[in-house]
Specification:
globular, MetI-like fold, Carbohydrate ABC transporter permease, cell membrane, 12 helices, mainly alpha, transmembrane helix, transmembrane
Length: 276
């Protein structure tokens, strides 16, 4: 190991400060704007001298925002649960079974990540129209599952690859069937990968704007992202102060979930990165 020079340490320090500014300054500006009155939105005030919490009060007691919040919670939790279940079975299948077309199917699933979201949306929207599911939560949740499936499948496959096949053989010797092997032995051992997939799916559906704005057209069914855009961003009037307050409020559930489950999320993402 070589000793780091003083110039290298100075460079790293300056680089870290610059990156920190790019990351945290937009967050600081959002909080600063949320604590201003709408009339002072465009004034340069970085020290909260015109402090007010009226914007947060308006958001928290707005029935329309609460409706969007309820819709987002339902869609995000449901799509996260379903996409995680599908990814669990797909990842286990690719990891522990050998069958004809397995490699081709794995490659085909990953190819979905190579296409832009807008291209996938065109295909999904046409499909949902033909199935007469457009405008429903089912179309939205199926779209989220389709997008999360490649990442979730490969994340869980990496976890199942680390589990020795001898566990399955020992369970079979003891008389266990596939149902018991999968649900009582293999899946519990892959909990970090399962949680990381669930978090990824939840965050994706919670923050999505493009799919939810296109597939859901009824205002009462809108989720948070398109709902906030349609409510605060108009052709002649933009309420940036209240928009920033709403953005902070709706980011709280995701932040809490990540803080509580971050160790599982990081463990799931790094699965298979180090080979013993």
């Amino acid at each position: 190991m070589f000793e780091k020079s003083r110039g290298f340490k100075v460079f790293i320090t300056i680089f870290a400060i610059v990156i920190g500014i790019f990351i945290f300054f937009p967050l600081f500006w959002m909080i600063n704007t949320a604590l201003k009155s709408p009339s002072k939105t465009y004034t340069v005030d970085l020290f909260f001298s015109s402090f007010t919490i009226d914007n947060f009060k308006n958001v928290l007691f707005d029935r329309q925002i609460l409706t969007y919040l309820r819709n987002s919670l339902f869609v995000s939790f449901t799509s996260s649960f379903l996409s995680t279940i599908v990814s669990m079975f797909a990842g286990f299948s690719f990891s522990k079974f050998r069958y004809r077309g397995r490699a081709s199917l794995m490659s085909l699933i990953m190819m979905a990540q190579a296409f832009p979201q807008a291209i996938l949306l065109l295909t999904l929207y046409t499909m949902m129209q033909k199935l007469r599911l457009d405008g429903s939560y089912i179309s939205l949740m199926l779209s989220y599952i389709a997008f999360v499936l490649p990442v979730g499948t490969w994340t869980l496959k990496a976890y199942f690859d680390q589990l020795p096949d001898s566990l399955i053989e020992s369970a079979k010797v003891d008389g266990a069937g596939w149902f018991r092997i999968i649900f009582q032995i293999m899946f519990p051992l892959a909990v970090p990968g399962v949680i990381s997939t669930a978090i990824y799916s939840f965050v994706w559906s919670w923050n999505d704007l493009l799919y939810s704005l296109t597939l859901i057209t009824e205002d009462a069914k809108r989720t948070l992202a398109p709902g906030l855009v349609m409510k605060y961003m108009g052709e002649f009037n933009n309420n940036w102060a209240e928009m920033m307050a709403a953005s902070i409020v709706v980011s709280i559930p995701v932040t809490i979930i990540f803080i509580l489950l971050q160790k599982y999320f990081i463990s799931g993402l790094t699965a298979g990165a180090v080979k013993e």
